[in-house]
Amino acid sequence: MDENPFVHTWSLAVEEQFYLFYPIFLLFVLNYFYKKKIKIFLFLIVASLTFIFLINDKNIFTEFYSIFSRFWELLIGCMTFFLMERKKKDLKNINLVYLIIPLSILLYFFENIQIKLLLISISSMLIIMNYKNNNFLNNILKNKILLHIGKISYSLYLWHMVVFFLLSFYFLKIEYYFLSIVSSLIIANISYRYVEVNFTKNEKLIKKLRNLFQYISYKLFIPILASIIIILVLNVSSVKKIENNFFNSISKLNIHKEFKDFNKIERNKFSFACHENFLALDNIDNSPKCFLKNNQNTLLIFFGDSHTWTMHPFVKDFNLESDKLKLSFNSSSFLHPIFRPDDVNIKKIKKIIEDQTKNYETIHLILSIDHLFSKNLTENKINFQKKLSSNYNSFVSELSSNSKIKIFLLEDKPSTNLTMNQCLTLKKINFSIIYRDTDVLCDYSKKIVKDFQEIKYIFKNLDKNYDNFYLIETNNYFCDEKKCFFHNADSKPFFYDKKHLTYDSAKQYSYFVEKKIVKLLERLK
């Protein structure tokens, strides 16, 4: 939430997309199928959920953020409105709110995000349908403080990300969270009082806007929709440009003159030629930028997610006498847990390795992956370690049948608490009362390293059980025994966005990794 002040606007976009379609759909249903409207809603909800479970591509971004994966949620809300009418007649004395208890318990037994959302949506529907009944839950919800928070909730939702984003540059830890919550509540109250209330009570303005929207709906809806589609088709980057303009505008609000979009600056220093290059994965011989041939007997393959990508510029400088192949993909391009046997990309890299064993005496596969992020992207997190272990065992076991192949897995890098901008600003303008020592202000605990220990145990077992697998421990490059450092020995930040190395740090880290591998290979001779 402290890296993008507009990360929550995806939900507003989904709502707007839905409401472009819903009025037309509702007019059609009410005019021709009024008595069957609930059945139609139920059918579409079930159809939408079925589509998600059976046809969805398991991409977390599609599954969570897309209008198609959220369509059923909005329909449940719309159906609730019509169920309320029926409740007045048919369900008046039935207190359905007590069903929320078993539904809440069920939340703990499901990891699938869509099932969780379905249970939450049904619970919300039951609360709304029973808001007039006298029961324990309604007595709690009628509390004046909770009622007021409910009234300002929309304003709170709109403003809280921006507030958290801006305050992250000037405060840390407890102060940051406390002031962010208090400031969000204050701004939400002001927004509700002077914007929402005034707007909803201004009947003349509402009437004018209603007439305007009716005119647009009847006269200009199709031309406007067609124009938007044409613009987006002709210029796919339009949405990204709008997002960048938003970010640049909010960046100017920061009073520190050195504030820059370091994410963009650092990312642009790296080459994307071999990142998300699916054509190279299909045929490496047609990708000379990714397949660096030096007529050697050894092939060095760098493969993984965006953590491998930051090493790409320096692969060619590795002193190991070898040909080099570098391929990396976004985490969202893999099935998770990573290295699932049914992942097409994993199948392709295995085929590349197997094919190249005919051309090389030795193949060194170097993997760099953020496994904790893979856990976040895993649809069902129950027994994540067991599934990850099974995936890796299957992958390593299959490749271990060929003595030419050696696998080197780089230990997960730690993640910082701050971005470059946040650390830079805190050092220049620190409003914190508790945290004043600027020399260690941006350093952080080894929690992320500790979180990785359970996963690391999997790789230590692989290192122990397979002669062709080696875990390269790298955390001592970023951390000492007590904490991890934000800056390297040259007082330059290791990471630009909490997870990814800056160009200069990636260069030094690549040399560090090279020395580790060379030393290990010498020991194996």
- Given as residue ranges, the uncertain stretches (5+ residues, pLDDT < 50) are 254-258
Beta-strand content estimate: 5-15%
List the strand order in the largest sheet. 1-3-2-4-5-7
How many individual domains? Answer: 2
- Overall average pLDDT: 82
Cα Rg: 27 Å
Shape: globular
Distance between the termini: 49 Å
Topology pattern, helix = H, strand = E? HHHHHHHHHHHHHEEHHEHEHHEHEHHEEH
Q: How many helical elements?
A: 22
Largest sheet: 6 strands, mixed
Structure, explained:
This protein has 525 residues and is of the alpha/beta class. The chain folds into two domains: 9-221, no CATH class; 270-413 and 450-475 and 506-524, 3-Layer(aba) Sandwich (Rossmann fold). 58% of the residues lie in helices and 7% in strands. It contains 22 helices and eight strands. It has helices at residues 9-32, 37-55, 60-65, 67-89, 100-106, 113-129, 136-141, 144-167, 173-201, 203-234, 238-251, 262-267, 278-282, 306-309, 312-315, 344-356, 371-377, 384-400, 420-428, 447-451, 453-465, 503-524; strands at residues 291-292, 298-304, 323-328, 362-368, 405-410, 444-445, 469-472, 483-484. Strands 1-3-2-4-5-7 form a six-stranded mixed beta sheet. The chain has a two-stranded antiparallel ribbon with strand order 6-8. The two termini are 49 Å apart.
